[in-house]
Amino acid sequence: MTTDNVDHAEVAKFDALADSWWDPEGQSKPLHQINPLRLKFIQDALSLPGVNAIDVGCGGGILSESLAQAGAIVKGIDMGKLPLEIAHLHALESGVTVDYEQITAEAMAIRQPGEFDLVTCMEMLEHVPDPKAIIEACATMVKPGGDVFFSTLNRHPKAWLLAVFGAEYVMQMLPKGTHDYARFIKPSELAAACREYGLSLVRMSGIRYAPLQQRFELDNDVDVNYLMHCRRLA
């Protein structure tokens, strides 16, 4: 595993969003909208109270705080300094305990292999040069029998139409340039990489946007956004 799997231009993008990270009507609105779905997908698989969890690519801490509020013992890691500062401040204001640190997933995996019951890596794989290194790190950090959850975007024409052209340029739900279609990952590719590093696929679900209701929903359609639950083989 490399410990320098960082695209600094991508980090800068999310640094620029730091001030509005916790504004549910701001540029991070889609993250706030899908966060309850991510949490539900996780809670459908395991009970969170007392679980030792790490949120890889935690950004401003939206999922990290939700996991902590649900009873997990949470560490959040990211390479964006400003989002981590926002995450720390918001946790203090909310009275939620999350241990945040600026460190790569690969370095964390070297430092604390096999120490976490739960590893989450949401909307991050498509923003790094080597997503397989992140998958390997997640597989290394989780305990045998522990759970790993990924979410990312499918490299499918429908994903370009809806998540890039539609969300960034038409509806302006996200800043232009947020996503690079070439970095999107097909579910088959993610599942194969998980198997390579000892993770077994448990469940997969799509996330679709319902424009009339103006909300996101869990769905069987994985052509755009999707969530994947894997378990480390004992």
From TrEMBL:
EC number of the protein: 2.1.1.222, 2.1.1.64
Broad enzyme group: transferase
Reactions catalysed according to its record: a 3-(all-trans-polyprenyl)benzene-1,2-diol + S-adenosyl-L-methionine = a 2-methoxy-6-(all-trans-polyprenyl)phenol + S-adenosyl-L-homocysteine + H(+); a 3-demethylubiquinol + S-adenosyl-L-methionine = a ubiquinol + S-adenosyl-L-homocysteine + H(+)
Pathway(s) this gene product operates in, as recorded in its UniProt entry: Cofactor biosynthesis; ubiquinone biosynthesis
InterPro entries in alphabetical order: SAM-dependent_MTases_sf (IPR029063), UbiG_MeTrfase (IPR010233)
Classification via Pfam families: Methyltransf_23 (PF13489)
Positions with a binding annotation for S-adenosyl-L-methionine: R38, G57, D78, M122
GO MF, one annotated term: 2-polyprenyl-6-hydroxyphenol methylase activity
SUPFAM superfamilies cross-referenced by the UniProt entry: S-adenosyl-L-methionine-dependent methyltransferases (SSF53335)
Any one GO biological process: methylation
UniProtKB keywords: Methyltransferase, S-adenosyl-L-methionine, Transferase, Ubiquinone, Ubiquinone biosynthesis
Domain of life according to the entry: Bacteria
The family this protein is said to belong to: Belongs to the methyltransferase superfamily. UbiG/COQ3 family.
Cross-referenced PANTHER family: METHYLTRANSFERASE, UBIQUINONE BIOSYNTHESIS O-METHYLTRANSFERASE, MITOCHONDRIAL
Role played: O-methyltransferase that catalyzes the 2 O-methylation steps in the ubiquinone biosynthetic pathway.
Protein name: Ubiquinone biosynthesis O-methyltransferase
Source species of the chain: Methylophaga frappieri (strain ATCC BAA-2434 / DSM 25690 / JAM7)
Gene name of this polypeptide: ubiG
